[in-house]
Amino acid sequence: MDFDTLRDIDKMFARRWDVFVVACLSEQESLRFNQLAHVVSEHSRTRIADSTLNRVKDRLMRSGLVAQDTQDDGHPAYSLTEAGKAQARFIRALTEAVNDSDEVANGEDPDRDETNPKSPNDDSPPQAA
Fold this sequence. Notes:
The chain is mainly α. The chain has 5 helices and 2 strands, in the order H-H-H-H-E-E-H. It has helices at residues 3-12, 18-26, 33-44, 50-62, 82-105; strands spanning 66-70, 76-80. The protein has a two-stranded antiparallel ribbon. Strand 1 and strand 2 form a beta hairpin. It is globular and about 50 Å long.
């Protein structure tokens, strides 16, 4: 077990909304505040209060994960920094690993090639034709 990585994961999930904000910004080039609030609420299936989103956004900006830019019309927009993009890739890999483990727990093999009856991970003897 890599406990340094585990500590990073623990920090990442210490605050409820941080992961949703980073994940939502990873799917867009940049979002204005109200757009971000809408997307986060939609994906979390829970409305995020403007005051909460403002605190989360400010914390992520202080952490160097989110940057504020000014759009052509003068309104601020928010996007991920390179560090934020790296964290988003980690979140995506973690969610994919969880989905794969759910498939295995349900009796599915995520590595099995259904078009090839003998997959590389299949140790059963070949069937007689």
